[in-house]
């Protein structure tokens, strides 16, 4: 391998705009409030200043062993939800992960550079593996490596994800540095996690854990829930002892979570929320939280219904996104295959003399 090729940073995105990549699994009944506030809302906001790639992580969804028909339908409806939440396919590439086989290919390559102990330390694996009724699978164990492949494939400068994914991003950075050190500069090392305090939304019934679309239940606010369902769920949210609306995550996890939700949904600092409800009861406070969430989701529901009335158009969006993403993915993989020493399929091995 020539020195000049080793040093060439040409795989990186053109410097004009940073490149951003993020994904979401087409699992659960719909996307939930945490997905919107912790991730998709930020995606929608950065589409002008960054070159964005957003994908539906259908390969990652397989760790839940979904029903095949359901996964297919959910992948398309997830595309509609993303668009309804503000992702714009005219500005961003929106695609299904499985449409680009390079993701699974790169995951294998990176897996061969990942320590077993290193992967074993991933807390999501430990948590999800422990709670899975059928036991942890190799797929679940491999999940962070596939996620690293998703990110590094696009030479992303930054990865807007929720706080729950911070550890996986650290692994991704380590793997990029390791690959570059061993094989020469190939991957952009993405920036570290930068999150805003409070962006992690907790389950309304069990505020000790994050809201999650695969767990679902009465403590999950779906972006497609009807207003009266949202109101009921917020009204039934577990609260804490005492009557004060005070932000204290340890002593009052339920109320603090609702305060975070109201703050994020209405764009009001938590301190202001606390001041506004000083002396008010939990009832008035919960009504305000419910109103803010209903208002936040109303346009999403309306736009979703419009988009779902034209599935052909959604498929065209995904095909167009895959074509745009595929150009970058194939450029990266051609370099990776070369650097790690895979024989190109077009080369004929000379017969022995
Ligand atoms: P699943 O239960 O299928 O893992 P999930 O709700 O955790 O679903 P993901 O598809 O894993 O959703 O993640 C999509 C994005 O949403 C990620 O960037 C993740 O960090 C973010 N996210 C998920 N849940 C929350 C939450 N409760 N608060 C903030 N961000 C979240
Ligand atoms: Mg998750």
Automatic annotation (TrEMBL):
EC number(s) given by UniProt? 6.1.1.2
Output one GO MF annotation: tryptophan-tRNA ligase activity
Q: Which SUPFAM superfamilies match?
A: Nucleotidylyl transferase
Query: Main localization of the protein?
Result: cytoplasm
Instruction: Report the domain of life of the source organism.
Output: Bacteria
The protein's annotated catalytic reaction(s) are: tRNA(Trp) + L-tryptophan + ATP = L-tryptophyl-tRNA(Trp) + AMP + diphosphate + H(+)
The annotated subunit structure for this chain is: Homodimer.
Give the family this protein belongs to, as stated in its UniProt record. Answer: Belongs to the class-I aminoacyl-tRNA synthetase family.
- PANTHER family from the xrefs? TRYPTOPHAN--TRNA LIGASE, MITOCHONDRIAL
> What is the name of this protein?
Tryptophan--tRNA ligase
Q: Which organism is it from?
A: uncultured Frankineae bacterium
Query: Gene name on record?
Result: trpS
